[in-house]
Amino acid sequence: MTYDDPWTWFDAWWRDWLDQKAVAEPTRVCLATADEQGRPSARIVLLKQHDERGLVFFTNHKSRKGQEMLANPQAALCFDLFAVGRQIRARGPVGPIDAAESDAYWQSRARESQVGAHASHQSETLGARQDLVDRVAAIEAEYAGRDIPRPAHWGGFRLVPEEFEFWHNRDHRLHERCRFDRTADGWTQRLLNP
């Protein structure tokens, strides 16, 4: 199955992947960033939104990944769909989404996750687990019976793909690979050797 534009392809594979219920957390994706010296770092985040504007995930902007994306606003995402023999890669510029979009998503989060976003000093050294437990209790007490506001340092990032690759497993490692590159006029498409 091939398509003339990457968003149609992404939507089809993404819907199929979610319908498969192949893994416990199907929206997981590996995010790769680099620091100011070009040293790479990768970790799993959850894709929460996507449309032709880009691919959106949320995090603490003070975290290691947040700081790396703010200092070096280029990133890559790799979607591990291996349970159905597929993989999607995307690469391009990344930056914070607007506050209203972050606020809207914040309101949809479980209260416990909102508490955690306030309590965790993500990526900083933790002296003892009890320190985090105590901060959680303090946040719960501070906001008992009230809505929990979104911290200013927490919100979404949008990766705007300039490149997509769709990989489909085939026997004997003769996989199918199709790459799209964004141009001023739209997208170019080409097949790659496995």
Overview of the structural elements:
- The chain is of the alpha+beta class.
- It has a single domain (6-108, 153-192), classed as Electron Transport, Fmn-binding Protein, Chain A (Pnp Oxidase, Chain A, Roll).
- The chain has helices at residues 6-20, 64-71, 99-108, 111-119, 129-142, and strands spanning 28-34, 40-46, 49-51, 54-60, 74-81, 86-96, 154-159, 163-168, 176-183, 186-192.
- Helix 4 (111-119) packs across helix 5 (129-142).
- It is elongated.
- The two termini are 17 Å apart.
- The model has no long low-confidence stretch (mean pLDDT 95).
Question: Helices and strands in order, then pairings?
Answer:
Blueprint: H1 6-20, E1 28-34, E2 40-46, E3 49-51, E4 54-60, H2 64-71, E5 74-81, E6 86-96, H3 99-108, H4 111-119, H5 129-142, E7 154-159, E8 163-168, E9 176-183, E10 186-192
Antiparallel strand pairs: 1-2, 1-5, 3-4, 4-7, 5-6, 6-7, 6-8, 8-9, 9-10
Helix pairs in contact: 4-5
